[in-house]
Amino acid sequence: MIGPTQFATSNRFHAARPEEGEAPPAPERAFADWLAEELRARGITVSGLRAEDFGWSVLLRSESYNLRIECGARDQAMTQWAAYVVAQPPLLLRIFRMVETRKQVERLSAALAKVMKSLNAGEEPARER
Predict the structure, then answer these.
(1) How many CB atoms lie within 10 A of CB 46?
(2) How far is the CA of 6 from the CAs of 87, 93, 97, 99, 110, in angstroms?
(3) End-to-end Cα spacing for the chain
(4) pLDDT per residue over 6-44, tens digit each?
(5) Exposed / middle / buried, residue 20 (Cβ in 10 Å: 0-12, 13-18, 19+)
(6) Which ranges of 6-128 would DSSP assign to H, the alpha helix?
(7) What distance separates the 2 farthest-apart alpha carbons in the chain?
(8) Is the Cβ–Cβ distance between 27 and 99 less than 8 Å?
């Protein structure tokens, strides 16, 4: 299950400059680090970060399935940011509907919306399904 995509606009991550040969760009890593810290401050257990070809995954603690927030820049200038929650149970649990992810995704999506709103300096973040 995938939660709604949350959007924000900010140039605050430009202080981090990419090192030669580093991919993805350092501003995206700075955004993922910031997002992880904001989630921790709200009582959400972050278990790590993982680089992806589209940006970064903020890995979250879950007992029975993969749970993460995918995040990255939406533009080359790295001022438009997007993030969404992904809950990915193992195939057999999905086939037999043995795990409920909706409530967890909704709870985390609500927390993510607040985090992204804080990045927008008080502006209401746009939401997209």
Answers:
(1) 18
(2) 16, 28, 27, 25, 10
(3) 12
(4) 999 998 887 555 566 665 558 899 999 999 999 999 999
(5) exposed
(6) 26-41, 91-95, 102-119
(7) 48
(8) no
